[in-house]
TrEMBL record:
Keyword Protein biosynthesis annotated: no
GO-annotated cellular components: cytoplasm
InterPro entries linked: SecB, SecB-like_sf
Entry similarity comment: Belongs to the SecB family.
Species in which this protein is naturally found: Immundisolibacter cernigliae
Superkingdom assignment: Bacteria
Name of the protein in question: Protein-export protein SecB
A Gene Ontology BP annotation from the UniProt entry: protein folding
Gene name tied to this protein: secB
Keyword Protein biosynthesis included in the entry's annotation: no
Annotated function: One of the proteins required for the normal export of preproteins out of the cell cytoplasm. It is a molecular chaperone that binds to a subset of precursor proteins, maintaining them in a translocation-competent state. It also specifically binds to its receptor SecA.
A GO term, aspect molecular function: unfolded protein binding
Major place of residence: cytoplasm
Coiled coil: none
Length: 159
């Protein structure tokens, strides 16, 4: 009976998106315009990560980092770097579930925006759109947890 009363009085979890914003973006095509005539098949190197920081009471900034480097032989065709951020009000979520919310839920909200910025930047740079495949942030978070168990944590959530 006491458990029912405690459960009824427990705060309901709240998750609100306060703002989604482009924190940083750069695009470089160091060999343009000569690289537009390249005929070799380009190679794409994609680096992806996410991080979170508490910036106020129940307020968290989550940043998804995307770096795509496209090469043709030894030449860099272009390099695009995007930091897509969001400000999330998260309240009443049990501490043991916060890592999941910050490492999976929030990046899943932000990634489509980062994907669009990467595509738009490559088109503005004179190239076909670079369309990033969907990302399984749940799998990335699980890998992060496994690495954390193997090494001592530094207190910063990144993956």
């Amino acid at each position: 009976m006491a458990d029912d009363t405690d459960a009824a009085q427990a705060p309901q979890p709240q998750f609100n998106i306060r703002r989604i914003y482009l924190k940083d973006m750069s695009f470089e095509s160091p060999k343009a315009p000569q690289i537009f005539d390249a005929t070799t098949q380009p190679q794409i190197d994609l680096q992806l990560g996410a991080g979170a920081a508490q910036v106020g009471e129940n307020l968290h900034e989550v940043v998804v980092n995307v770096t795509a480097t496209v090469r043709s032989g030894e030449d860099t065709v272009f390099l695009v770097e995007v930091q897509q951020a969001g400000l999330f009000h998260i309240e009443g979520v049990p501490a043991e579930q916060m890592g999941w919310v910050l490492g999976v839920t929030c990046p899943n909200v932000l990634f489509p925006y980062a994907r669009q910025v990467v595509s738009d930047a490559t088109v503005a740079g004179g190239f076909p759109p670079l369309l990033l495949a969907p990302v399984n942030f749940e799998a990335l978070y699980q890998q992060h947890l496994q690495r954390q168990q193997a090494a001592p944590a530094d207190g910063q959530l990144t993956h």
